[in-house]
Each structure stands twice: as structure tokens, then as C-alpha cells.
Specification:
Strand content: 15-25%
Radius of gyration: 18 Å
Helix content: 10-25%
Order of helices and strands: HEEEEHEEEEHEHHEEHH
Structural class: alpha+beta
Number of strands: 11
Shape: globular
Length: about 270
Amino acid sequence: MGNQLDRITHLNYSELPTGDPSGLEKDELRVGVAYFFSDEEEEVVDDRTPSDCGFSKDHSPAEEEEVDVEGGGPFAVSEVEYSAFCAQECIFSKLRENEDLDVYAAPTLLAMCKPGDVLELVAAAQPPHWAVCEHDGWVIHLHKGEIRRDDLLDVCGGRHGRIANSRYRYRPLPADLVVQNAAGHVGLRSEEICWTNSESFAAWCRFGKREFKAGGEAHSAEQQYFLKVHLSGSEVHTLVFRSLEDMIRERRRVDASGILKELSLVNGGKE
């Protein structure tokens, strides 16, 4: 597989519109560069039941047969856990020991969320799909190369989800500005879009940081991101990236593939 940094192609930073880090976009900064899109956004919203998607109640195996998977949750789902750092600062955490990672059925999630919330929809063998809650059950999200406004129940399909406002440790923008960021980009397609996946788009809407955009930060030897992949027990693999975008894309690839053995080929070693 080789070093992850060697297999990702970057566009020249000076060629890319990075936008205003405050989260307020100008029209002329959105258009004019064709970005590459990964296959992870070619998702199919299917009719699988929660059990088909890898969900179960937090019971012993003997009890799982009695679980009502059609209920509102909460459900536990088997997921790879991560923490991420820029220099010494923790910027991302998805650790069950530190936070509630239970997920909920779509109607329950709909009742829980409010405008400006970031939602994370999960299913087995898929990267999580992220969306920004707008109002009255509508969400805005990046899907198949288009920023769309859709009904949350339709977007969820067979997936369950959670509110992921605190997944990233940056200071959030006010809720009305988060919604404004998302709504202002509805209808953009392919070459007009500065994000390579739904997570980066939703996180940019909430935090307004240009690092979530494709090519949104200059690469330097001093700027490094460390992704710690927490496996069973105390086993941890650490990967090093030059940009937040690279780190997000690799983490989502692992979520979709479920192949952890490749990690040791990327940046070796257990801690």
C-alpha cells in the first residue's frame, strides 16, 4: 500500500479557493476548480433493517434475539474508535469510553435534533454520512456530488444516527450561521464544490474552518495531524497526515472497508 501521503494527489494550494475562515462564503470563491470525489459518497439509501446495518441493543448474545430492532433505540453499533491530534491538541474524538456513541432510529433522532445540529448516520461497511439539521425535519448534506436539501427520514433509510456536534473539538459557530452556511450552498454540484465528502461539508458548516475544504490548508513540515486508531484492548495504531482533509478521507476509508490490517503498512506500529 505504501505511505498514505504518497498515494493521495494534492492540487496546488495557490490554485484553490479556500473561502473565509469565519464561515461566510463569497460567491466568487465557490466556483472554478474541479475537485476529485471519492467513491464513499456514492451511497445507496437502502431498506435494510437496523439489524442488517450492524446494530444491536447493548445486551449479552443470549439476549440479542429478543431485541426489538424496530424501536427507537438507543442502539449500540460496532465501530472503529479514533482520536486525532494537531500537534498536542486533541481535535477529534470518537471513543466509547469517553462519550455516548449510541445511535437512534430516524423518528427518535428527528425529535432530538434542532437547527444547526450536525447528524452522523451510520451503517456497517459504509463511512458515516453527515448532514446539517435545518428545520422541520429537513437536512442539508453532500450526496453523490451535489449539496441537497432532503427529508431526514428519507436520508436515513435503514440507517440509525446520532447528534455529532462534539465530535470535533473546535469552537462552533452560532446555530443560525451553521444553517446559513449549509443553505447557501444547496444546489451546488461537482466542480462548484470544495468538499470531498459529507463529513467535511457538515463540519465546515458548523465550524467554518477552511481546513475542511479540499486543499484548504497549506502543507508544511511543521503542520502534522496524528490519527490514533483504537483497536481491541490497549492496541493503538498511529497514522500521520499533512492535512485534516487527508486524515478524514483515510479514516472514512477504514470505516467503509473494515480492513484494519492495512494500517500497519501505512505508518507501522503499535503503541
